[in-house]
């Protein structure tokens, strides 16, 4: 079989090398997945650039966490899966239910866990969930990181309710999933975006209004003035945006922090405390949350937005596309035919 390896000590796409190896065999408690598609996330570039750090401490690595395919072999003792089952990968290990724990790792395709950018992978039987029946495997491959993160941000701790207002920061994969999920919940959706072309596309998706965070440094106040305060912010930018998020919130609102893009701001305690807001970190989500999301996607016929697809031999081009400023939706690598 063929697979891609991210070579030790290399922090550019030149470190991605394709190699041919024997097809792996599942052991007890494991399943083998014939991978049909793998989807990229921003974290895959963090891993690429972290040649000697926490993301990649153990040498060569099969990259990418998000994949979908068909189980074609099961190991001894596996009873919940059969050959032919359509499944998606689960991002984090040993995380069956909320809350998070110290043993869940950094996700497939990082640290001590190989990923799914290969024709076949072997995983613990608990490391896959059923793929949504309404989606192709190319679209199902986008679920494990971005979609589960969006679902956890919207439904965990302070679940978004019908008729509430929610603000997404930017137009990355998590934000676009959050738009679709929030619309299906029945919320009114707002998004920050600095590009007119993307703002038009967001409005076509049913977004009530967009706010240009580059043209308006006080965009949080603008959101509050226009909406009366949103009930939740899905913050995919990072801690550098928290004070503006607080400005945008209604009293008693919630900020779900996901992003690793901006750092450095000290939280202004006066408004934070006065508004009684909550601030939560979102480490993707549990296996149970992924299973709940799959059922929700099917019930509401949600279809992920795919920006570009690439062939298996075009993995380097896919990596480069993932950081394009024009990206709007997911980048997916087709590995085998469905």
Automatic annotation (TrEMBL):
UniProt domain Enoyl reductase (ER): residue ranges: 11-333
Protein name: NAD(P)-dependent alcohol dehydrogenase
Organism classification: Bacteria, Pseudomonadati, Pseudomonadota, Alphaproteobacteria, Rhodobacterales
SUPFAM superfamilies, A to Z: GroES-like, NAD(P)-binding Rossmann-fold domains
Listed Pfam families: ADH_N (PF08240), ADH_zinc_N (PF00107)
Molecular-function GO terms, alphabetical: oxidoreductase activity
